[in-house]
Amino acid sequence: MSTDTKLQQQIKIEDLSLQQLNSLKEQFDDDISNLTNLYSKLKRAQSSFIECNSCLSTIEPNLIPDSKSDSSSLSTEQKVLVPLTNSLYVRGTLKNEDKVLVDVGTGYFVEKNLAAAKVFYNKKIEYIQQNSDKLLANITEKQKNLKALVEIMQQKAIASAQAASASK
Question: Whole-prediction pTM value?
Fold first, then answer.
């Protein structure tokens, strides 16, 4: 393809009619709404990963004296509450405190040690933060463009009202 066909045609926004500007405004409103919804979903996912990471911090291998020897050893059991629903829990016991199952997406779980799970969640948190920052910049740019468009619409409406009153 030649470079001429790759270039998009540019139209001055001032040359558009009020009806075309209104249609463009609706498109900007829809885009901003969709991007804002996506941004809030990213933030909810990020807070979920932050919560998972903080939960990993609560699982620390406990040192307890072993009755059979004089040295300390890692306990093999820790009492926990296991959530069945958002408001229903049962008592449970962790047999191996250093291993956890990590949801890596689409219903797949991977067994990881605590350190590897923390690294996994930290990477997810950082990745989502980078993407949400880019998305927020995109939303801000669209809002600036929308504001400029509304100002042009107002100028055109005032000009058409003045032209209508002058012709009377």
Answer: 0.73
